[in-house]
Amino acid sequence: MAEGIGKVLIVDDDRFVRMALSEALKSWEYEIVEADSVKAAKKAFADDEPAIVLLDIDLPDGSGLDLLTHVKEQGPDTVVVMITGNVDVENTVAALRGGAHDFIGKPVRIEELRVTLRNATETRELRREVQQARVERKKGFDFAEIIGESEAMQKAMELARRVAVSDVGSILLNGETGTGKDLFARAIHFASERADKPYLAINCAALPANLIESELFGYEKGAFTDAKAKKEGLFEQAHGGTIFLDEIGEMELSLQAKLLRVLEEGTFRRVGGLKDIHLNARIIAASNRNLKQESESGNFRLDLYFRLSVIQVDIPPLRTRGDDVILLAKYYIEKVNQKRRGKSLIGLSPEVARIFKNYGWTGNVRELRNVIERASILEDGDMVTSAHLPADMLGGHPNAAGSRSSAFMLPLEGVPLESVEFELAKQAIERTGGNLTRAAKLLDISRDQLRYKLRKAGYDTESADQ
Ligand SMILES: Nc1ncnc2c1ncn2[C@@H]1O[C@H](COP(=O)(O)OP(=O)(O)O)[C@@H](O)[C@H]1O
Ligand SMILES: [Mg+2]
Q1: Which alpha helices (H) appear in 105-221, and where do they start and end?
Q2: Average pLDDT, the chain
Q3: What is the position in ligand 1's atom list of the atom closest to the CA of 180?
């Protein structure tokens, strides 16, 4: 690292010490400020904002240790190096506790000073970087990054912000796929007092129940065949942080019972363990299903639903957010522009803006992002035009928000009905990740009907689920 970065304040009542130090420092291209008393040092510190302070302990009008406290309060980033004639243990300990970076003894050896200062400068840079990283990490997951000026979104964010800083132990995020549940969960974590602690996420749809259980609870050695050594679960690892249970509606009923117990009692045990461990993490659960309905039909535990929904944040679907869809489209246009070589996109054609506002957006913001990314690849001009929108978006007309039929309109030249059916069936399959039962539900037909339609179109249903 280059020397000569920043100002150095030399505080010593001995004029010859100051002279010797400042001569050496100047030759290394540091800028020097001098002070001979506590009072003068405080003033110099305020006026010149030095990066480094060389501080004598015995001063005529007070102790360098008190000055150390003052400096660390006013400028926590400042690196303080103590200079002391007689090294006594008590002072040393006090100074280190007070945040001194290092000590050098008198008489000062120039080489030692040089190394110490170089260290000090590095330390300061490092501190800055760490702080920067923390700020940036927070920035990426801030409520300010969530786009939405509609009343519905403002209400959801306002509630989420309030519960973030509260001491509420569990929160339920409810919203269709792509509405921003992940985004909200992180924003809540990083807006809370837990921000510096871990944020750990697990997707209940992606793992079998026994794996989720051992991931969450951890296990003792020998709890099951593969448990060769004990393992801490997320409940322990989160340690003061937040656990995000995504798609909790997919969690098996037996595991739901165990989770409920943890929430009620505030303690848990590792699998195969006997010791009660205190839960010290906030649980944020998310679901794209209506858990109340699910519990009425027996797919979700009603008692767990009640426990989780004490604080429920409903994230509204995009089609009910009015002009937010245009704001979000512009946001994604800016994003794709950064990656796009050549001409930038400048906006949406009026026709596209109209279509966007009336479209059903079942995939919500995620779908919107995909539409913009696709258009940005296909468009040659500087506007997103309807020519490069997915076929099923075309022909939308003004409608009551959320009306089911809004997205479909017969093209002027007509279209074979069967191909539309097949296209929609295929989309339902894709959206549900190949789950025939849920795809059929989306289309409001039976699983067998769906299977039949797919077969008729020559689609291999065996590759989807059973
Ligand atoms: N209001 C919003 N502002 C900016 N980006 C958003 C917003 N809502 C969602 N996104 C983005 O859309 C995508 C889907 O959001 P996500 O939080 O994963 O949805 P969910 O978890 O509800 O399925 C992510 O890339 C996310 O960053
Ligand atoms: Mg998600």
Answers
A1: 110-140, 151-164, 181-191, 209-217
A2: 86
A3: 17
